[in-house]
UniProtKB/TrEMBL annotation, chain A:
One of its GO terms (cellular component) is plasma membrane. GO terms for biological process: transmembrane transport. Gene3D superfamilies: MetI-like (1.10.3720.10). It is found in: Cell membrane. Belongs to the binding-protein-dependent transport system permease family. Residues 69-284 form the ABC transmembrane type-1 domain. Keywords: Cell membrane, Membrane, Transmembrane, Transmembrane helix, Transport. It is a multi-pass membrane protein. It comes from Caldicellulosiruptor hydrothermalis (strain DSM 18901 / VKM B-2411 / 108). InterPro entries: MetI-like, MetI-like_sf, UgpAE/MalFG_permease. It holds the Pfam family BPD_transp_1. Its main location: membrane. The chain crosses the membrane at residues 12-36, 72-93, 105-125, 159-180, 263-284. This is Binding-protein-dependent transport systems inner membrane component.
TrEMBL record, chain B:
SUPFAM superfamilies: Periplasmic binding protein-like II (SSF53850). Transmembrane segments: none annotated. The keyword Transport applies. This is Extracellular solute-binding protein family 1. It holds the Pfam family SBP_bac_1. Keywords: Transport. Belongs to the bacterial solute-binding protein 1 family. Gene3D superfamilies: Periplasmic binding protein-like II. It comes from Caldicellulosiruptor hydrothermalis (strain DSM 18901 / VKM B-2411 / 108). It comes from the Bacteria.
Length: 295, 440
């Protein structure tokens, strides 16, 4: 058996199916995208090679591209600095509650994640409706009428409104991952810390957060990738509008490909999109470089 | 019976059963393949997902009657809303799997690249002799002097309004832009949305802008010429029209958050009598006969010309009209002749035009006056009167008259204008920039 497995031809044969699938499903489309990004193809007829023209246009003159990238990064920051601290706090709270309440809360928080995005997006469009939407109605009820907004219909509030929807939709996932991480921290550590005199918040800052570092890292990475890939919620709520106020990269390249018939240009955006994703992730890994705690 | 004998009997029975079933299977296959030889499958891609009212109902009716008359033909319909339709269409084009017959918008921004690339089959003019198509209606379905599609409706813009709400609040149906602004103020005060509009879809905003340009100038060609010559930013009429549009937004002329409202939302707002007016095209003629709408609404719905502008040169009879939707047959279809037969069957004037008009489902692209019975709904009569009184028509609307990207960008700029993300001056400057990039 060992002889067979150390034979290079056998190894190649065993790896071949996976390699073929990877080549044709991932590698080849990426190469094709790079090539098409260098053409003026409209999706109909034959593509003409134009070199780096599309890339130049996107980088130097396409303000919507940069706005879309900025919005995606803002969403990523909102995930990391707003959604995740709250999700972690709630995970700790659920972990501490115990018993039947723990199961109930866990289920409640996870509900948005199992409802299709189409449904939750439509629901939020109704909530945000300035006339019959619940949000403005509540503000009226609380005598805070001056805070009423047109939410998705105003350039000043559309982006933040979309970001709130995205945070709400993904909250359950973030919470669940933290919750699973918390379950992996042995109770003895807390007991030992308590004996040493640690109390309250210190227990969490000195034990929970450091020991959750690998989980936090994974969770942040997932959140950032999700933010950069954001498409369906935007498409279903504002479609990037008003104008391009709430435009995101994936939706923008989709509009370029399918509405403007600029397949070549859209492919160039997708290539830059991949580069941006990789750059953000590399940067993030560098920031988060730390030792893992053993326990 | 000994064990051995039993085994033999059981074996024989099993073998017999096996032979019979295999024989049956082969027979079945033979008959099936014999019948598939005769069965013709036609794939039909439509942009009318609602098959119970308006044009969708008509389309389905004619498809069903064709299948009834030709039992060997099976028509598979795939129907999607406008935007998903455009995307799916592109996917079919990119993968070279065109449906046998498909809906097209007879506009350069959509159909010209399709015709140029040879995806649509030619329709000989002899084939549609006596069909009642005006030559002007076929213009945008033609390329290099050859015809590639047939228009199914006459599209023109009107201002629908709710008589009941106008009476209730004692508001005069607006004939001038100032009256429209005043009407908007009164309705706003009473918690009624003045004009329902689907601002999220953008195209309607661009059309409304052109409406104002025409009412300001009285010149249907002005906007096209300005874009073709790339002299947009200095044009005072174009600037005035942009300011009119912003003015209408400023007085609260549209429902709240209209920029985020899609077609369904705007349509519902008007149909539920929560909006007094609805700026939309003649394809909504079926509203007055739609079983999904309340009797009160159907009794109250009416249509009028878009108001003129005091000081403007445009008349109320200068209307925006074009032949938008239509059908084409795939050039690469394996059942091209059958698909063509179906298209010619559907578009025969005694079917699409006559049935569609008499059932109040469509304003056809063919001559429909000869099919009038006197039993038409108020909307049908009013739309007929508006169209037949037109002193000038626009043809393909401005955003559709150039490239697909011009359309996307121009519509986005119109949305930015009404959302006040850009000033009217900046709007024109951006349109000019766009024209320089996109218009050869």
């Amino acid at each position: 058996m060992h002889k067979v497995l150390s034979d290079k031809r056998t190894i190649l044969l065993l790896v071949l199916p996976g390699l073929l699938i990877y080549t044709f499903a991932i590698l080849f489309p990426i190469i094709l995208s790079v090539y098409l990004g260098m053409t003026d193809w409209s999706g109909i007829g034959r593509p003409n090679f134009i070199g780096l023209e599309n890339f130049k246009k996107i980088i130097f003159t396409d303000t919507t591209f940069w706005k879309s990238l900025r919005n995606a990064i803002l969403l990523a920051l909102a995930y990391v600095f707003v959604q995740h601290p709250i999700a972690l706090a709630f995970a700790i709270f659920i972990d501490k509650v115990g018993g039947r309440a723990e199961k109930v809360f866990r289920t409640i928080f996870f509900i948005p994640c199992v409802i299709p995005v189409v449904v939750t997006s439509r629901m939020w469009v109704s909530l945000y409706d300035p006339q019959y939407g619940l949000i403005n109605k509540i503000l009226d009820f609380l005598h805070l009428g001056f805070l009423k907004q047109q939410w998705l219909g105003d350039t000043k509030t559309a982006l933040i409104s979309v970001i709130i929807i995205c945070m709400w939709q993904g909250f359950g996932w973030a919470l669940l991952i933290y919750y699973a991480g918390l379950k992996g921290i042995p109770e003895e550590l807390y007991e030992a810390a308590r004996i040493d005199g640690a109390t309250g918040v210190k227990l969490y800052t000195k034990i929970t957060v450091p020991l959750l570092q690998p989980v936090i890292k994974v969770n942040f990475t997932i959140a950032i990738i999700y933010a950069l890939k954001q498409m369906e919620t935007v498409y279903l709520t504002t479609n990037g509008g008003p104008g391009d106020a709430s435009q995101f990269l994936a939706n923008y390249l989709y509009i370029r490909a399918f509405n403007s018939y600029q397949y070549g240009y859209a492919n160039a955006i997708s290539v830059l999109f991949v580069i941006a994703c990789l750059a953000v992730n590399v940067l993030f890994q560098k920031i988060f470089k730390s030792e893992n705690y053993e326990f | 019976m000994s064990k051995k004998a039993l085994k033999v009997v059981v074996s024989v029975m099993l073998i017999a059963a096996l032979i019979v079933s295999v024989f049956g299977l082969v027979q079945g296959n033979l008959t099936a393949s014999a019948s598939t030889q005769k069965t013709v499958k036609i794939k039909f891609l439509s942009n009318l997902p609602d098959r119970t009212s308006n044009q969708g109902k008509l389309e389905q009716m004619l498809i069903d009657s064709y299948m009834k008359a030709n039992p060997n033909v099976k028509i598979e319909v795939e129907a999607l809303q406008d935007e998903p339709y455009k995307q799916k269409f592109k996917v079919y084009v990119a993968t070279n799997q065109m449906p046998d017959i498909f809906m097209v918008w007879g506009q350069p921004s959509f159909f010209l690249p399709v015709m140029k690339a040879g995806y649509a089959a030619e329709i000989k003019l002899d084939q549609i002799k006596g069909y009642g198509f005006k030559t002007s209606s076929l213009k945008d379905f033609m390329y290099n002097g050859k015809l590639y599609g047939l228009p199914r409706n006459t599209d023109f813009m009107v201002l629908y309004y709710n008589k009941g709400l106008f009476n209730k609040y004692k508001v005069k149906v607006p004939t001038t832009f100032n009256e429209l602004l005043n009407a908007a103020k009164v309705f706003r005060k009473n918690g009624i949305a003045p004009i329902a509009i689907n601002g999220k879809d953008k195209w309607i905003l661009a059309i409304l802008y052109q409406e104002l340009v025409v009412k300001e100038s009285g010149d249907q060609k002005l906007i096209y010429d300005a874009i073709s010559k790339k002299s947009v930013s200095k044009n005072q009429i174009l600037l005035k029209a942009a300011k009119d549009l912003v003015n209408l937004v400023n007085v609260g002329g549209f429902q709240d958050a209209f920029v985020a409202a899609d077609y369904g939302a705007a349509n519902n707002l008007f149909a539920q009598e929560k909006a007094a007016m609805y700026y939309m095209g003649s394809w909504e003629v079926g509203m007055a006969a739609n079983p999904n709408f309340s009797e009160s609404f159907k009794k109250n719905v009416d249509a009028t010309y878009f108001p003129i502008i005091s000081g403007g040169k445009g008349k109320k009879t200068d209307i925006l009209a074009w032949h938008g939707g239509g059908y084409a047959v795939s050039a690469s279809s394996k059942v091209k002749n059958e698909a063509m037969k179906l298209l010619l069957y559907m578009m025969h004037p005694t079917r699409w035009a006559k049935i569609g008009w008499q059932q109040g489902l469509v304003v056809p692209g063919q001559n429909w006056e000869k099919f009038m019975t006197g039993k038409e709904t108020v909307l049908q009569k009013k739309l007929t009167q508006i169209f037949s009184s037109a002193t000038s028509v626009s043809g393909t609307v401005w955003q559709d008259a150039f490239t697909p990207n011009f359309k996307t960008e121009a519509e986005t700029l119109c949305q930015m204008l009404v959302a006040k993300a850009i000033t009217p001056e900046k709007f024109l400057a951006k349109i000019e920039e766009l024209a320089k990039l996109e218009v050869k």
